[in-house]
Design goal:
By secondary structure, the chain is of the alpha+beta class. Helix content is 28%, strand content 25%. It has a single domain, classed as Trna Endonuclease, Chain: A, domain 1 (3-Layer(aba) Sandwich), CATH 3.40.1350. A hairpin with a 5-residue loop joins strand 5 and strand 6.
Length: 152
């Protein structure tokens, strides 16, 4: 079985790649209504393949997966990289202080992002949400402190 997320020791440098972009300007996609500034987008010197990378100041510790909000942020950068730079990344990196995750750009993750964004937009529009606030549910939620007033 192929793993979609691989945890490795944290490092930024990538042999054979050059930095193509470093949060210098806002990337936007009007079709999906997304915008953002990835920390870095690397380009393979030979193949031209692009890899977005997002640095996080936190540590991940023993967790076998990245924080959900961070994962959704990277998936947004997959879409922005494709629409703004014309090349769909096959993978990206979430780099924490202690570990990094190599994430494959899958249809399932993209659909999950679209669902999260639709829920957030609906919350903004209606002011309503169906979540019963609780620490385990809300602590890693991408909406916490933004469109949702629940702060734990």
């Amino acid at each position: 079985m192929l793993r979609k997320i691989v945890k490795k020791k944290s490092r930024l440098h990538m042999l054979g790649y050059k930095i193509l972009y470093s949060d210098s300007k806002l990337l936007s996609d009007e079709n999906f209504g997304l915008s953002g500034k990835p920390d870095y987008i690397f380009e393979n010197r030979i193949t031209g393949k692009l890899i977005p990378a997002e640095l996080k100041s936190a540590s991940i510790g023993d967790s076998e997966s990245p924080k959900h909000g961070d994962l959704m942020q990277l998936v947004c950068y997959f879409i922005l990289t494709e629409s703004c730079l014309g090349s769909r990344p096959k993978k990206g990196r979430l780099i924490y202080n202690d570990y990094m995750f190599v994430i494959k750009n899958t249809r399932r993750l993209r659909n999950e992002l679209f669902s999260v964004v639709a829920d957030m937009r609906d919350m903004i529009k209606t002011g309503k949400h169906d979540v019963e606030p609780s620490f385990p549910v809300c602590r890693h939620c991408v909406c916490q402190g933004t469109v949702c007033e629940q702060i734990l």
